[in-house]
Q: What sequence folds into this?
């Protein structure tokens, strides 16, 4: 998949990833569109195509921006040759394509898990927690792949703790909040 994505035009990959990200938040998007159409007096079917196209473009650009920022942070923190901590000798294009490959499947799985909420809205809290678990699990898989492929042996433990700490904190907070909402 990674070699296939290297051959495709980047804008097509951004559009595909934006469409998959839109699919992952489809229920939330439909709810917001319905509310906006109702309060502004417009027809829902007239507004929906414009909202979906705008969301695909915006989410594709946001994913690209987040991947660029994470690459810059990784390079700023972990590319220090004086401290013997330089496990990312990776160009941006390869970092980007690898992250796209994992995010595509993660966002698609998150959208498929959350799809029953369109028909059974009472499952939104439970399936929202599962979707968050899948999305943060995707981040952990990306980090594990980079560690396996690009990290040096003496850096693996320190790098793993540093990179996995933030997603685990966010995942645990999201899981606890979702658990509290489900218990209520």
A:
């Amino acid at each position: 998949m990674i070699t296939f994505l290297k051959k495709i035009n980047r804008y097509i990959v951004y559009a595909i990833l934006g469409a998959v990200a839109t699919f992952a938040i489809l229920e939330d998007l439909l709810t917001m569109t319905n509310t906006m159409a109702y309060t502004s007096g417009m027809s829902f079917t007239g507004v929906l195509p414009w909202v979906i196209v705008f969301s695909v473009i915006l989410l594709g650009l946001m994913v690209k921006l987040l991947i660029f920022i994470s690459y810059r942070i990784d390079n700023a923190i972990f590319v220090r040759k004086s401290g013997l901590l330089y496990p990312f000798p990776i160009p941006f294009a390869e970092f980007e394509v690898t992250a796209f490959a994992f995010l595509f499947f993660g966002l698609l799985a998150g959208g498929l898990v959350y799809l029953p909420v369109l028909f059974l809205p009472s499952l939104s809290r439970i399936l929202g927690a599962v979707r968050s678990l899948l999305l943060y699990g995707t981040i952990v898989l990306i980090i594990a792949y980079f560690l396996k492929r690009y990290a040096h042996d003496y850096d693996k433990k320190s790098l793993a703790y540093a990179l996995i700490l933030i997603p685990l904190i966010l995942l645990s907070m999201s899981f606890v909040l979702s658990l509290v909402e489900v218990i209520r």
Summary: Helices lie at 2-7, 10-24, 26-40, 44-78, 92-114, 124-150, 156-183. The two ends are 43 Å apart (CA to CA).
